[in-house]
Amino acid sequence: QSWSRGMSYCLHSEGHSDTGPIYVRENGKLHVVNQGAGGIQNVTPKARPFSLFSRSFSVELCMNREDDRARRQRTDHFIFTYTKEGNLRYSAKSLFSLVLGYISDNVDHIDSLIGFPEQIAEKLFSAAEARQKFTEPVTGLRALQKFTEAYGGLVLCSLCLRNRYLVISEKLEEIKSFRELTCLDLSCCKLGDEHELLEHLTKEALSSVKRLLLKDNCLSDAGLRRMTAPIRVLKKGLENLLVLDLSCNPKITDLGIGYLLSFKKLNCLDISGTGLKDVDAVIKRLQMQIGLVHSKVPLKEFDHSNCKTEGWAEQTVLQWEQAVMEALKPQDNLRSRVATLRFYGKTRRIEEVVKCTVVEPETIASGNLQFYKENVQSCNLPLKKEVAGSHELKNNKKRALAEQETERTSKQKHLCLTVEDWDLLNTY
């Protein structure tokens, strides 16, 4: 009775709000109190879904980047694999791999790598390259410079940028950071005489270049004059150049060929497709002064198959090219516009990218003007049969040239630089 009075008091209380059904446990059984009738039913209550929040309540999930980075670092310490039974198995990484990953994540903060072991540096470069650290605009250049300053040709000994003028324009500073290159292919890039990369060729960092391919780059006599100025005046710059390709540059004339006579070590030269006026005079001049012989057969040195990108940064250059191509993908939508213009008979304003070919029609029309040295095996061409008595003539020519060279060098020791030479030096 006391229990029923208390319950009726609670149910009929004026200040009590509607709280739904009330459950009471008595003698090991659960009873529900019916508020409407004010009685008690001995039935088992049905399961009612429990809702913690009202229907108008909304939840927004926010991820903290620092927490996510910490979580990723915790999982990066383990290697997860699966057994034959399909069970997940994990093993801890070595301390070396953990330290290598940490340094590669912060490779742009390294002060210097000079004196650091090459074997470890190569693994560090590969780890940073896998994280695409060298593709970042500012930090990538700073990190790449640390490696090129310390290891030079190991980072990249040969670079092929043939028909990749977009990569040159986007990653010019990164390309200029490479040191001790032996082969550089800049064919079909339309650089011109005033490009910054051509000026960089005369710097001491690229004095090790032995193969330089500048086919179809809109070069003229002024460009050759600037490119050969350091070696003509100061005997520095491209003094180790062995192979030079200047084909398909119609603005190069007989005057520009005179600047090439300063390359005394040159073994192979290609000037096909240039604007020469007196070809016979140029052939005789090259043969007499630097010993280059006109080849009747195309040389294998200029087939663009020997110059490839080689070194630690080989994949880095591919990443640069892929990034440039992905940036140009939105332009693919312009094809529909071209089709529309064709349908309405309008002229096409969008021109396709002109690809450079190995053999140009202009070269075939003007003839093959490739030169090589007979006494050098680097140019892959069979030597010509010598006529009887030609040995003595060649020896006499060599002696005469040697005497002229000694006289010229002895005079240069006593002569000072002219005003034109000082003006030329001041331009650099």
UniProtKB/TrEMBL annotation:
Pfam family name, one: LRR_6
This protein's record includes keyword Signal: no
UniProt KW keywords: Leucine-rich repeat, Repeat
Q: Which domain of life is it from?
A: Eukaryota
UniProt keyword Zinc, yes or no:
no
**Similarity comment text for this entry:** Belongs to the LRRC42 family.
Protein's name according to its UniProt entry = Leucine-rich repeat-containing protein 42
Species assigned in the record: Donacobius atricapilla
